Amino acid sequence: MHVKAKKIAFGGMLLALTIIFMMLGSIIETGTLFLLAAASFFVGIIWREFGAGSGVAFWGAGVLLGLFIAPNKFYVITYAVMGLYILIVEIVWLKLGRMSDRINRKALFWIVKYVVFNLIFLPAVLLFQEVLFVREISGWMSVIVIAAGQVFLFLYDRAYEYFQGVLWNKMRGRLLN
To answer: Which residues are CB-neighbours of 154 under 8 A, at least 6 positions away?
Structure first.
C-alpha cells in the first residue's frame, strides 16, 4: 500500500474510533472519562507516528466531527481539552529534549504539565460551576474538586505514558506494517 494512503487510512480508522468512543460516553455514563481519555490518546498516536501537523489536524477533525455527530456536546468539549493537553505535552516534550542536560528535565516536564493542566482546569471549575455541577458549589467543595483534578491529571498522564510506551509499542508493528 502506498505510504500516504496507509497514513490516511490509519488516521481515518483512529478518527472513527475517536467518534465511537465519544458516542459511547453518552451511552455508558460510568465509563465516560475513560472513553474520552482513550479517544484523546489517539491524538498522541497520530502526533508521534506522523508528526505535529498531522496530530493537530487529527485533533481538529475529531473536534469538528464530534460536534456534528456526537449527541453530547459537553463530551466533545471534554475530548477537545484532553486532546489539547496531549498536544501541548508533546510540544513541551520536544522542546525539553533540546535543552541542556544541566536542567532536571523530568521535574521541569511535570511542573509544566501541572501548569498547563491548571491553566485549563482552574478557570473551568471556578467560572463554569453551574455548567459542570448543575449549581454553584461551596468553597470547600471547590477545593475538593480542584484536589481531585490534580489526582486525575496524575492518573491520566500515567495512563497516557503507559499506553504510548507499552501498549502502542506492542500494537504498532502489527497495525502499521
So the answer is: none
Task: Give tens-digit pLDDT for 86-115.
Answer: 999 999 988 887 777 777 778 888 899 999
Cell of 160: 497516557
> Do 113 and 154 meet the contact criterion of CB atoms below 8 Å apart?
no
Q: How far apart are CA 16 and CA 4, in angstroms?
A: 18
- What global pTM score does this model have? 0.86
Average pLDDT over residues 119-147: 80
Distance between CA 43 and CA 11 in Å, rounded?
10
Contact 62, 19 (CB under 8 A): yes
In 3D space, the residue among 168, 153, 141, 145 whose CA is nearest the CA of residue 111 turns out to be 153
How many other C-beta atoms lie within 10 A of the C-beta of residue 10? 16
Q: ∠ CA(144), CA(32), CA(84), 5° rounding?
A: 80
Helices (H), 28-104: 32-50, 52-69, 73-97
